[in-house]
Amino acid sequence: MKGLNLVLGAAGLAAFLALGEAVPRLGLVKEAYFPPTSRIARALGDELADNAFWTALGDTLTGWALGLAIAVGTGIVAGVVISVVPHLREATASTIEFLRPIPSVALIPLAVLLYGTGLRSVLLLVVYASFWQVLIQVLYGVQDVDPVAEETARSYGLGPWARVRHVLWPTALPYVMTGVRLAAAVALILAVTAELVIGAPGLGARIAVAQTSQAVPEMYALIVVAGLLGLLINVGARTVERRALAWHQSVRGEVAV
After folding, report:
1. What is the model's pTM?
2. What band does 251 get if pLDDT is binned at 50, 70 and 90?
3. In terms of DSSP H, where are the helices of 156-168?
């Protein structure tokens, strides 16, 4: 079954690439706006041979990784503290619901005003967008803790942090990993968006330069790179999630009796 899925996936990709080659050559769209797959592939090869491309890729990955790490760390700590401190969740609920829906791109003017077009502006946007993905999942995970297990831990004299380690964390971990996986994708989107809009160094800025200079094949090649990067990040996040939750029923495929 797995081999069949791989074959079908490869066949679908080949058909998509063939369609991308045929549509502009048949005149269904203008090549100036949508070049054939072969031209995009040549432009991609030229990009891979350019040291500036690898520098831009490194800048994007730096903003993504740093922003994601900060968001995950602060999201987990904030979620646990809000959940275990009495009445703190109720006190912060309205603030969280007010701040969470604010689109990160709406903060671009603030980021530029505070930090210009450097890495710190990218980090501000990435952290803000990714933080909520982690925080909300942690809050849901803690809410799912079995009250009987919690009371049993109390009756055995476990302190607050011992209960967090042995009761709360194992229950919340699947939610945390879901939040990390979502945050990883959101962080990449915001990193490229920030580079594209404010001109911070990275793939987004390189895409913007290609677009303004009418280098259409190069622009599409860079977009393909961004897409492949997102795919690799998603696959990597899922792999980490499966390994971190190897003990969990959802990964082991056990059926609850």
Report:
1. 0.86
2. low
3. 160-163
